[in-house]
Amino acid sequence: MLNFKNKHKKLDNYSLHHGVGLVASDDPNGIISEQFKTIRTNIQFSSVDKPLKSILFTSSEPSEGKSTVSSNIAVTWAQQNEKVLLIDADLRRPTVHQTFNVDNKKGLSNYLLGNATFEEIIQPTDFHNLYVITSGPIPPNPSELLGSNKIKQLFTRLSESFGLLILDAPPINTVTDAQVLANLVDGVILVVPQGIANKAAVAHAKQALLMVHAHILGAVMNRVIRDQHYGYYGSYYGLEKYQRKS
Ligand SMILES: Nc1ncnc2c1ncn2[C@@H]1O[C@H](COP(=O)(O)OP(=O)(O)OP(=O)(O)O)[C@@H](O)[C@H]1O
Ligand SMILES: [Mg+2]
Questions:
Q1: CA of 197 to the centre of ligand 1 (A)
Q2: Hey, which of 20, 56, 135 would you mutate to test ligand 1's pocket, going by the most ligand atoms within 8 Å of its Cβ?
Q3: pTM above threshold 0.90
Q4: Staple partner for 110: which of 115, 201, 210, 219, CB 3.0–4.6 Å?
Q5: Residue 199: phi, psi to the nearest 5?
Q6: Which domains are delineated in the chain?
Q7: SS3 call for 221
Q8: How distant, in Å, are the alpha carbons of 22, 124, 208 from that of 131?
Q9: CB within 6 Å of ligand 1 — which residues?
Q10: pLDDT for 183-219, tens place per residue?
């Protein structure tokens, strides 16, 4: 496991137990919700030739805001009248069931192990047009499960029923899961907490994604400090275009 030094960094377990904050629904007309709408538009425009059917959110290291950003983007996208499915593909530190207050007895891991059906794992949420697949119980071998042929077939089938699949994935630099999943989606977005992420770690994550020929759409800058405030309402989310490998 790579260990990039970062004096600001600590593992945050709050969202594991309580889910992440859905600013996009709590304050739909607020500044942060507007930022999420801008990100949604930027993501849509980042792939003009081919409409995106599946996107994956990851980051270089843990606790950088992947679940916060992917869940809020899912809510924002569904508000646009598109049928959206948020998949908790983080089989190690899952949060989607907590965030959307749904059951986690039958999720992705159960399906991949052959213990749940396609219909059983798709759950509606309180939001119109937004559905989720939770992680299911944490398996001993996440990378192996995520690398199976069964997941490819699942995504193909899901794409027939949903306008967009959004994957909340584990961090790149700690486990291979996100690299494996990056290959199955149309685009990857890196969540980068400004002032917290280690530059070398972000560069390493980008290289790891390019190595598996992932289509990097860009990066969402999280926790950008503005006007001396820090935290949600001082945060600024923007999509920075990464240079694509030709
Ligand atoms: N912009 C923000 N402002 C304030 N707090 C934030 C912001 N983004 C994330 N957080 C908080 O940071 C913590 C970690 O966020 P989150 O769970 O989204 O990260 P993650 O990358 O999904 O973590 P993990 O690696 O465990 O999956 C949570 O407590 C979340 O509420
Ligand atoms: Mg997470």
A1: 13
A2: 20
A3: yes
A4: 115
A5: -60, -45
A6: 18-197+207-240 (3.40.50.300)
A7: strand
A8: 15, 4, 30
A9: 12, 14-15, 20-21, 59, 62-68, 90, 93, 95, 171, 222-223, 231-232, 235
A10: 999 999 999 988 888 999 999 999 999 999 999 999 9
